[in-house]
Design goal:
This protein is 28% helix and 26% strand. With 326 residues, it is of the alpha/beta class. It has a seven-stranded parallel sheet with strand order 7-11-6-1-4-5-12. A five-stranded parallel sheet has the order 14-13-15-16-17. Strand 8 and strand 9 form a beta hairpin. Helix 3 packs across helix 4 and helix 5 runs parallel beside helix 8. The longest helix is centred in the N-terminal third of the chain and has 17 residues. The chain binds flavin-adenine dinucleotide (FAD). Flavin-adenine dinucleotide (FAD) binds next to helix 6, helix 7, strand 16 and helix 8. The site of flavin-adenine dinucleotide has 29 residues, from helix 6, helix 7, strand 16 and helix 8.
Length: 326
Amino acid sequence: MSAILTYALHYQGEFNKNSLGAVSEGAKLAKELGGEAAAVVVGDGEDLTDELCASLGKYGAGKVYRAKAPEGLAQPVVDVMAKVIQDEGYKYALFGGGLLGFEIGAGLTARLNAGVTMEVTEVAAQDGKLVAKRPILQDSAVVDVDYVSEPGIIIGRLNAFDLAEAGDDQAEVVDVEVQLEEHSTKASMVQRGEQRGADVNIEDADLLVAGGRGLGKAEGFELCEQLAEALGGAVAATRAVVDAGWYPYAAQIGQTGKTVAPKLYLAAGISGAIQHKVGMQASENIVAINKDPNAPIFEFSDLGVVGDLNKILPKLTEAVKAKRGG
Ligand SMILES: Cc1cc2nc3c(=O)[nH]c(=O)nc-3n(C[C@H](O)[C@H](O)[C@H](O)COP(=O)(O)OP(=O)(O)OC[C@H]3O[C@@H](n4cnc5c(N)ncnc54)[C@H](O)[C@@H]3O)c2cc1C
């Protein structure tokens, strides 16, 4: 039985970690449903080799459908996944979140007139069907969502699904020919950029320098990065700046981001909204720099500095470097 289809995004011969989490989760769930998990890979480069595609077997994919089409764009992937689902009868499509996952999932939902659940944090197999768990009402409750028709589309929150290597298995690689829709060829990839800070695991860091809207602009994060480097720590962010595109979501702390408890949490230009506080209040030492003496963050800080972060952060970085001998 063809149970679950996932999409694995790749770049220069490597799969994206978030996609591999979805492939692993799909494999685990397909086993529970008694069916097969497969992945779709799309690209037009030389790097999409048999070996690379088959390696998804390590994460539990039994089959990998490979299609030649532009990579990194949503619509061509929608075309490929829609064809594979229609031809092979997959019951569910599962995505690991992220911008591309959301876009492909939404496109596939519209194309196949399917049911969709977004921001899913957990999926369970019950009575031969999948049930998606999704937080609602500002994360104060969780609802169970199941599907009355096939296919069901499940889009996880970013990194919601754990990556698990199942072994050395190799997936069967199947080439699929797909006629792209006319609108799917209208966009092309001009350039690919790396998000700064996206590769750092802030949950493991002992020292975090967190920046908020008080930094003024995306470049303001350089002040946080310099101090974090001097301290040997990492950089975190509020939702306000992540939403503004100043820093990657991977660094967001709070109710809809990560929960951390480092030895030191230094908050620069952060007001201390309750939704931020819930993600960092367990930190051992909280130091806040804010120009507003009435900022709520001072109510739960161990040390508060009232002043302009543009003056304080560079001086602090210098002092830390001097103390550490350069
Ligand atoms: C459902 C929901 C979920 C949410 N989830 C999250 C979440 O996960 N994480 C999160 O962080 N937020 C979350 N929020 C948003 C939250 O309510 C706040 O809007 C957000 O935390 C504010 O971010 P901020 O502190 O960067 O910005 P602001 O509240 O605008 O604060 C900026 C601060 O910088 C100070 N400042 C300005 N200039 C300077 C300067 N030169 N020097 C020093 N200080 C300066 C200001 O005095 C101010 O206190 C959520 C909101 C909702 C409704």
